[in-house]
Each structure stands twice: as C-alpha cells, then as structure tokens.
Amino acid sequence: MRLDRTELWLLGAGLLLALGAAVLPGWLTFLLTIAFAKGLVIQGVVIQMRAGLVSFGQGLYYCIGGYVVGMGGHMAGISDVFVLLALAMAAAVVVAMVLGLLLTRYREIFFAMLTLAFSMILYGVLAKSPALGSTDGFNVTGLTALGWHPGNSAKLFVYVLTCGIAAVAAVLLHRLSHSSVGYVCEAIRENEVRVEYLGISPRWTLYATYVLAAATSALGGGLTGMATGHVDPEMAYWTTSGEFVFIALLGGIGHVAAPFLAATLFSTVRTYAIEFVPHFWQMILGFVLLGIIVFLPKGLWSLFRRAKDREARA
C-alpha cells in the first residue's frame, strides 16, 4: 500500500511527537495526550459532519470507551492496553449498530437531539449506579502492554501510545475521505435524493459512518481514561459532547489533521486561562474561540488553505 505525501507527513508527525517524550516536560506530554485522545473523538464528529450530520451525543461513545477500559481492569482483571482498547471499540460498535438503526432515519436537528438524548440516558444510568462509582466514577490503574509493566512510566507510555494510534487513525481516515465512500458522504451532504437516484443507499452509508465514528470516539475515550487514571459519568454529559462539536467547528473539516490541531489549541488556551485567571477562564476561553470562529469561519485549517492558495497563485 503506497502512502501519499499527506499520509507520510502524518506518520512523520506522529513519530516526531512520540520521540519528543524524551525531552518534553511531563505537563506538556499530559496535555498533548488528552488533546490527541479527544482529537480522536472529534474525528468521529467530523466523519459525520462530512455526511451532513451533527452529533451532539458523541460523549456517549467517549464514555463507553472510558468505562470499558476501567471496568476491564476492575471486574475482569484485564490489564493489557491493547485488549482493553479493542474491547472498548467492540462495545461501542455493538451499541452503535443498535442505535444506528433508529438514528439514521433522522436528519438535522432531530438527529442531533436524539444523539444527545441517548448520551444523557447513559449519564443518568451511570450516575445512579453505586457499583460503578455513581457520580464519582472510579480509577483506572495497573496497565500493562503485552506483558510489560510500565510502572512509573505509565503516563509516558500512554502518551507514546496515543501519538502512534492518532497517527495511524489519521492516515486511515484520510484514506477513507479520499475513497469512494468519502465522496459518497459528501454527495449525501449536498443532495441526498440525487445519491439515491444513483442507486446508492444514503441511509446505510450513514449507518456505516455512524458506526465508524462510534469506534473512533470509544478509542479516544479509552485513551483518555488511561491518561487521567479516572473515569466518571461527566464523560457522557451534554457539555462534554457540546465541547466536541465546538472543537470540530474550530478546526473545520478541511483536513484530517484539523481536529488534532483544534483540540491541542483548545486544551492549551483553557490550561493557561485557568492558570492566570482562574475565576474568569470561561470568559477568556469564550472570547478567544469566538474570535477564531468570526475571523476563520471555515476553521483553523483554512489558514493553511489560504497560504497554499497564495503560494499557488505566486
């Protein structure tokens, strides 16, 4: 399988960031770990946005991924990170295959509100379940990788793992967006009726897209649980899902790297806003992000697009 220039760039960036673990401070590697893990969830939102759907309930699968990773260790005694992540994705796919049969019948605000409703149902169930820690959640500890115990280097290992998974996922999603399925999704967004006239089922295409987005989001949720060492029902709360949609709009849908870039910027701005103005950090964050949306309505990636267009004209 030959890799194009963008795919080589994505893999190179992932490798460079992973190697940076040797020199980057601990606080920065943690920030990047959370940003890249959430970037995977935002990829799930963007996948659906390219097909004309906006999910306000992606926190559902983000939470499923985190809880499956946590429950695998607490209840099943599974500690291997690769097995836990595979279980997280499998659980999300099973749930998405069931819910997708209903959700893909709807469009626009109806789809958005239904996804939000299912996410809040999960939040309510987890918050009322003492066996799962209720509103406090529970910790994720004792991770291993193919029999190796990282010990005190667990956070650093999760960072390197997240960089690798994010890079590979970005390459696969880039390839998907430039495949026939990706172009069909864009056609559905523009005119669903014409796509159906061509003999392609928009509903089943959206169904497959929804399931893929669920698996990607669960992967991000599992990595977040490993990085923070804790999971709680807030992962499924509506504000969490709203944050994912906001960051997706912040980055735009122009490139597969945009969600990771936007998630990193969002995490950085929020971290420094809390550090310097702890009582007004929400206002600072709001003004910064509002400015980006006003002056860059197509997202952060439009800056690179403009630079490329100027270079081409020159």
Report on the structure:
This protein has one domain. It is 72% helix and 1% strand. Helix 2 packs across helix 10 and helix 11 (258-276) runs antiparallel to helix 12. The chain is mainly α. The model has no long low-confidence stretch (mean pLDDT 88). A two-stranded antiparallel ribbon has the order 1-2. The two termini are 34 Å apart.
What's a quick, concise take on this entry?
The chain contains 13 helices and two strands, in the order H-H-H-H-H-E-H-H-H-H-E-H-H-H-H.
Number of helices: 13
What class do helices, strands and sheet pairing give? Answer: mainly alpha
Low-pLDDT parts are none
Portion in strands: under 5%
Mean pLDDT: 88
Label this structure with key terms.
mainly alpha; 314 residues; two-stranded antiparallel sheet; 72% helix
Secondary structure topology:
Elements: H1 5-19, H2 26-49, H3 59-74, H4 81-103, H5 108-127, E1 138-139, H6 154-177, H7 180-190, H8 192-197, H9 202-228, E2 230-231, H10 238-251, H11 258-276, H12 281-295, H13 301-313
Antiparallel strand pairs: 1-2
Helix pairs in contact: 1-6, 2-6, 2-9, 2-10, 2-11, 3-4, 3-9, 4-9, 6-9, 7-9, 10-11, 11-12
